[in-house]
User: Fold this.
Amino acid sequence: MSEPAPIALSTVLLIGCGRMGGALLSGWLERDLADRYVVVEPAAGLRPATVSPHVAFVDAPEHLDPKLKPDVAVIAVKPQVMAEALPHYRPMAKAGTLFLSIAAGRTLVFMAGLLGADAALVRAMPNTPASIGHGISVLCANAKVDAAGRGRADALLSAVGQVAWIEDEALMDAVTAVSGSGPAYVFLLIECLTKAGVEAGLPDALAEKLARATVAGSGELARVSPQSAGALREAVTSPGGTTRAALDVLMAKNGLEPLLRRAVLAATKRSKELAG
Ligand SMILES: NC(=O)c1ccc[n+]([C@@H]2O[C@H](COP(=O)([O-])OP(=O)(O)OC[C@H]3O[C@@H](n4cnc5c(N)ncnc54)[C@H](OP(=O)(O)O)[C@@H]3O)[C@@H](O)[C@H]2O)c1
Assistant:
């Protein structure tokens, strides 16, 4: 199979350089993805990753070079400031810049309302492990985005982890409930396992260390292994053994599966409500 053509990006505009925008910028710089980055951030100068000669910061869109025509503009502001922030960039969208938004719950139609009906738009849902390059982002494009635009959006989010595409934007609510909110479920698992370990007699620090390392190590094993999660589970479960005793509780009729199903359904419902 031939290698995909390398993505050539001249200028990337980043709108909002907080936790997620900063993580993206670090990933792009590490991978040398574009010739230069222009960042619009009210707190310009206070953020990390300001040290590269390839990055220029401005504190408001009024201070951008009016001739600036980035290949891609990445929207990484909070969803509630989009209505105020985006109309400034309408001329760029009209001139052909692709807009890639990571704002939770803001639909392609909502963005087109702010940037123009002809705007090429990609909506993405990343998650927090992106901050260490181990995120997963799900992307969805409108009809104005061509194959090159998809490639660019894909490359920008691949810099902070894995990428998957969906064609049906309605799936974004379930995506949000699984991978967007998912890191919180895993952190809760670490907390619960720690508490259970303490109740079983372990000192707090040791219980926390064991729980954290077990979740992290098992996650990495699941990531690199060709085996399914079920097969990996069975491989550590001997009949009549300790793991089996615990799984009999976790896999009971009212165990983890129905609990997680309810949790994901609740998050999906909330995501729909927030998108309005
Ligand atoms: N963090 C996550 O887990 C996660 C996961 C998936 C998606 N997202 C999405 O990522 C986006 C950013 O989240 P975040 O956690 O990185 O938030 P954040 O840390 O608050 O970052 C947002 C940044 O945008 C800046 N900003 C505000 N108004 C602006 C404007 N008009 N123009 C340019 N920059 C502006 C903010 O500056 P000030 O602080 O000075 O206001 C802040 O630095 C959100 O839409 C969120 O839904 C986040």
In short: The mean pLDDT is 93. Residues 182-275 form a domain with the ProC C-terminal domain-like fold fold (CATH 1.10.3730.10). The pocket of NAP is lined by residues 15-21, 40-43, 76-79, 81, 85, 102-104, 125-128, 180 (CB under 6 Å).
